[in-house]
Each structure stands twice: as structure tokens, then as C-alpha cells.
Amino acid sequence: MEYKLAKRTENIASSEVREILKIAQNPEVISFAGGMPPAELFPHLEFSQIAADILKSGVESLQYAPTEGYLPLRRWIAERMDKKWGIRRFTSSNILITGGSQAGLDLTSKLFLNIGDCVMCEEPTYLTAINAFRIQEAEFVNMPCDDQGVITDGLEELIRARKPKMIYVIPVHQNPSGRTWSLERCKKFMEIVTRCEVPVVEDCAYFEINFNSQCHCSLSAFDPKGLVLSLGSFSKVLAPGLRVAWISCSEYLCKKLAILKQVADLQTPYLNQMIIHGYVQKYDFDKHVADICRTYKERCELMIEELKKGLPKGVSFSHPDGGMFIWIHLPEFVKVRELLNVCMAGKEINGEKKKVAFVTGAPFYAYDAQANHVRLNFSNSTFERISDGIKVFCSALKEAIADYYGDAKENASGGVMRCGA
Amino acid sequence: MEYKLAKRTENIASSEVREILKIAQNPEVISFAGGMPPAELFPHLEFSQIAADILKSGVESLQYAPTEGYLPLRRWIAERMDKKWGIRRFTSSNILITGGSQAGLDLTSKLFLNIGDCVMCEEPTYLTAINAFRIQEAEFVNMPCDDQGVITDGLEELIRARKPKMIYVIPVHQNPSGRTWSLERCKKFMEIVTRCEVPVVEDCAYFEINFNSQCHCSLSAFDPKGLVLSLGSFSKVLAPGLRVAWISCSEYLCKKLAILKQVADLQTPYLNQMIIHGYVQKYDFDKHVADICRTYKERCELMIEELKKGLPKGVSFSHPDGGMFIWIHLPEFVKVRELLNVCMAGKEINGEKKKVAFVTGAPFYAYDAQANHVRLNFSNSTFERISDGIKVFCSALKEAIADYYGDAKENASGGVMRCGA
């Protein structure tokens, strides 16, 4: 039986993240692949009590309920964004609860994108966001970036030439690069998009995962025309399995998104929203977030230390001050997929075979993939596994480089090529 | 600020169901509008214990998890469909868990529909399914129906002429008409779609809500080519607020849908899936379903009795043997929207003002709406409210008819028009 499927199904034939999650489920493998928070930090005992109380005391969590979400949670989110994200004008009417940020990407794509419409993204950017735009059959334009964020010189000309229907950015602790935009760059960027009147979807999944005491501003703080839609999430600060996230935006767009959400899934489960609201009411959420950040920071620092010790010269990597990932820039001749295969096959460390998984860089590019990158997750591994895993990774990489020079020597009769900086 | 939105947002500018849910939330109003199960039947105390145990004993329910769904629940669903739905060939690989059936409609639409593709539906059909197809900018073709289901005479010619990309049907206790297809009609229909090789999305939301002892067959039971995608749901048999439903179909389509689901929402919350699995493992699910059916049947019978007593002559209505709705066929001259306004304004019953809400028929037609219908929900009202509410409805309808005859008399100088049969 040959089915006639919609054209969009051809655009996302394979799925890197699905492979990642399958790899990550095998406890034998040291996985730096997925973007998973460490399960040992989930407040599951608190949730157990809260869920039991909600369900014992009534049936509100089990009935059909308004699409926009659980009002007390929407109010709490609006207040937090006002206080901690520098926005100072949001109420519950600006907040739509979604089934994870991925559902927010689905809804915002549906809101703006016709077939062939242009989306502008950072280069590189979050791979499953690329897929969300691909199934709307969007066209992509990459925005060049430096370590301060999207490069604003020439951006207005690019926007006027390519007329994007929306821009997608991750200004804080970007996935995969770990980059955070400078405040100055945020303001310049918003001046330009405000002049050009382009909607901006700002992904704030890692917004509160900060290793230093600094807070960040949402782009909404510099948005006089209501162009910014921010995607916030409880996945990284409480638990991803509950699938509760939100979109904050102008009331007008919020209403439009609610109509689209009703057609997509009617509503996000109230039980899950009420569990989260119960937690932030009864417990010290700021302390919980601080505990997460401390753990991540320690793991990140260890990974950086091990990378410094083990990486061959000329291999650079990001030093994030938040989020979950380190982004490694390899010499261009390294075949990253082969490197992954070697790491997955395993290497002996202290007399024991250790297998390591990571994500290759190519899927993080909508087009013109730079294949010589690796994304390493540090949040979901113990010290021991980070230490062992990075040793495997560095050893495999050194071999790949040595092999190349060996081959190069043979092919070039003794000439030695220099490793790309 | 004028936003440039995607074209699809124009297709679903207003939303009838959103209005319905808002009306239904006001306890003053006797609501026959929504399709809500009665909250007093939700097993919330059992859920409370199950949820507490799941969360106390571990963190599996809180971490990212495979898109396809919780394997033990997928296995249980496959077994139940084999045993109770007459399918006899499904395994967990044929089951994809979705966030409610609405998410199943979103995914199946994405799987099959390009812009302008044709969808064939029963006339009338479920209004939010129409919206799910509309946001893919589909074209609609209605299939004429009688009390045995879709009329199969001429169906093959219609399919070959209009080349639908998919067919959407609700063969058991249809929403809104209450109709259940005869077994013979199911088989004839499947013979035709098998010859024409058209995928069929079969909505089974009310499949287990039977007032008599009969079981029903899924169209999958007559599907040698793997063309049927069945949407099953726990919303009507356990609790809609948990948002757990499923799609069953061929393994090939199941894999394609899982890729689309990953882009739509990554996964359905595992806690919710584990609560349902815990319930069907620990409690007598068949007894629970039988209790629901008995309650619905009693309410349905009372509503039919009150309608028989109160409706003016010439007004016909369905006598469902399952599901949640009675479908009323009014004389064509009755202005249904005005009738709703009168009912919402309220009428005095036994010295007290009672307000009544229902859904008008027009939104259940993809096009060529027959405006002279009303859908009444009986599942979510007590005996007293059904009795009072139907008195209000019948009294308002009698007035509307009397007014019309009064007007008709005036306009036609004494001539009396007959009420449509």
C-alpha cells in the first residue's frame, strides 16, 4: 500500500532528536547527547503530595477547561516575567499555556507562516525549531552571529531584502552555541525589528539557568509595538515530563494563538498546570532554581576542565555562563559522524569500556550546515561520567586528527597540514 | 500594529466551542451545550492515590520520554482494541499516544493534507474536526447520510470524481447526530474505500458509551490495506482533563505520525499516561464504563421523555443508543440563534427563572449549513436540570412557532403555513 502523504512529511523524513532520546535511554552509554535535566533534581516527593491533594479535594483538574490555561498559573507567570524578566506590563491576558515549548513553536509557526514564507534564524539554531518551521514549508535565512548575538550591522538591509514573516531567536544561553546576547545587542536588534515590524519568536527555555548572579531581560522589555512572542517553559526549572510551558505576547496575538491551540489540542492538562502552581505557591521556587543552577555550573566547570586537559591544540569550545550545552568547534577535516561512531563503540578508561554519545552539529543549521561542530550536554551526567566521557571523546578526537595527519602525510608525501584554528 | 498572519488564521476566525465552554462554566445556566462528561463520575480519589504512588516511587513520569507514548499503556490499548473493538491484529507498534483526540485530528491532518486537498465528511460532522481540516486549508465534500450511516450508493463515483486525500467519519454514536452505522454499511463503505485506496480517519470518541449491551466494530476490522486511522480517547470513559488519547493505524503511518508529533509537542505527559495505566491495572475499568453508560442512559431517557411531552408537533429528534447528544430537527422557519437567545435570557419554571444553553446546528456543517438543528447534551446535567431545561427549551420553541404563525397570518392575511415535518 503506497500512501499519498502531504508534502510536509518529506521535509522531516528523519529525526535526530528521536535517535538522541533512544541513545540516552541506554544506561550503558554516557550520554552528552540529549538536553535532559538531571532527574535527581525533580521535586517528585513534593509533586506527589501536591498531586494527591489536588485530586483528593476535587475534580477541577480532570474536567475540560479553558484553552488559555489555569488562571492562577497564568497570573503567577505574568508576575514573574514582570519582576524577573524586566517586562513590567504583562497580565494573565498576555499568557497562553502550551504543552511544552515545542507546542509553542508549532502554534507560532501556524500563526505566521504560509508556504514559502521566510523565517530568519540564528546560525546555528535549535534543531527541532527548524523542523517546526519546515513542516510549514518555510524558507530559511540565517542571520550571522558573533559572541554578542545576532550581528546587527546589515540586518535591516537583510530584513528589507528577504521580508521574513517571523524571526526566531534564543538570546539567552543559546542551544546549541551557549551564547547569550549582550544587552546592547538586544536593544539594537529590537530597534531594527521595530522599524521593520517583523514578529520575533524568542525562545526562553534556558532563561533562568544562570551560573552567575546576573538576570536577563526578555526582548519584550524593548518592544513598543508588541512584536515579541516569548516562549517560556517549566521543563528546565521543574520537570519536562509535565509538559507545561507558555507563550507571552500581545493580547491580540494571545487570542489568535488560543484559537489555533483549541484546534491543535483543546487545552493543556489542568492537573499538570495545578501541580506546578501548587509547587510555586508552597515551596521556594527561587531556591529550587538556584540549586539547579549550582549543580549545572559544577558539571559545566568540570566538563570545561576536562576538555582543557584533553583536547588537542586548535580545538575551541564555548564557555557558557548558563544553559545546558558546550559547543565545540573542530578542525574542518574531522569527520564528526565517524567520530561519533568511534565514541559510541567505546574506549577503555581505567580498565573499563566506556561508550559516549553526543550530537553532531549539522542538524542545527537550517541550510549550509557547518559539519565540524559537536554539542555536548553537561546537565545530565555525574562528575564521574563527565570525567570518563570527556576522556573517551578527547582520545577519539586525537586519534581522528592523528589518522588525518597520517593519511595526509601519505597523500602529500611527507607534507604536514596544520590543524584549523 | 497590524500583524501579517498566515492565511489559515482567517479560516477559523471565531470559535463556537470556546463560547460553549465559557457558557458551561456559569453554574446558573443549565448547559446542554458542551460535550462534557459529568465530573461526579471521575474516579478522582483513585487517581489521587495512583498519582501519589507514581510520583513517590520515582521520576520516570517527570523526565523526557519517547514520543510514541508509555509502552505499557500502548500495549493495553492494543489488547483492548483487539478484544473489544474486533480488530485482532494490533500490537503496541500500531498505537501512538496523543494529547487528546483533538491532537490526533491535528496530526492526521498534517499527515495527509496539502492546501486545497479534498476531505470528505459526514453531513453534519464534528465541528472542531472541521476546524482542524480548515487550518490546513482543505476543501470539503459532504457525504450524504441516512440512519444507517454514510450512503454507499454513488459513493465510489463521488470519490473517483473528487479524489479526497482523506475521509473523516464518526461511525459510532456520531457527534452531533447520534447516529451509529449499521454493520452492513461499515462493510460496504470499507469495500469502496479499499478499492479507491483512500485513508479513513475514524473518530471513536464515543465508542464505548453504549446504552445497550451491543459492542461495535472499528472500521479497522474490515481494512485489508491499512487505510484506517482510528482515534480513541480516555476523555469520555475516564477524564478529559488528563488529555490522553491515541491513534491506531498501520505501523508505517504510526511512524510517520510519531515524527509529526515530535515536531508538534515532543510527547504527551507520562504522568497522565501512567495514571490511566495505573487505573486500568488496579481497578475494574469495564465496571466503570458500565456505570458511566448507565448514568448517561438514564439522563438520555429522561431528556427524550421530556422532549416527547413538551415539543410541538412536527419537531423530530434522534433517539441515540449511546454517546452524549440528542440532535433536534426544527421547522425551517425557526430562527435557531434567536431561540438560543431566548433560552439564554431564561424563562420561569416553577416560580424560578431558568436559563438554558445549547449549540446551534450550523457549525457542524463544513458548508451548506442546515441552520434548523439544535444539539443537546444530556450527559452533564442532573435529572432536575434536564427536566427544567427541556421545559424552557420547549416553551421557547413553542413561542417561536406561534410568533411565526402570528407573523405569517399578518403577512398572508389569514393564511396559515404548515410547520415543516
Structural commentary:
Two copies of one chain form a homodimer. Chain A has 421 residues and is α/β, with parallel strands linked by helices. Helix content of chain A is 42%, strand content 15%. The first copy, chain A, has 13 helices and 16 strands. Chain A has helices spanning 8-11, 16-25, 44-57, 71-84, 101-112, 127-134, 155-162, 183-196, 251-265, 270-282, 285-310, 336-345, 383-411; strands spanning 29-31, 95-98, 118-122, 139-143, 145-146, 149-150, 166-169, 200-203, 228-233, 245-248, 316-317, 325-329, 347-349, 352-357, 359-360, 373-377. Chain A has a seven-stranded mixed sheet with strand order 2-10-9-8-7-3-4, with helices on both faces. Chain A has a four-stranded antiparallel sheet with strand order 11-12-16-15, covered by helices on one side. In chain A, strands 1-14-13 form a three-stranded mixed sheet. In chain A, α3 (44-57) crosses α10 (270-282), α5 crosses α9 and α11 (285-310) packs parallel to α13. The longest helix of chain A is centred in the last third of the chain and has 29 residues, at 383-411.
Topology:
2 copies of one chain form a homodimer.
Chain A: H1 8-11, H2 16-25, E1 29-31, H3 44-57, H4 71-84, E2 95-98, H5 101-112, E3 118-122, H6 127-134, E4 139-143, E5 145-146, E6 149-150, H7 155-162, E7 166-169, H8 183-196, E8 200-203, E9 228-233, E10 245-248, H9 251-265, H10 270-282, H11 285-310, E11 316-317, E12 325-329, H12 336-345, E13 347-349, E14 352-357, E15 359-360, E16 373-377, H13 383-411
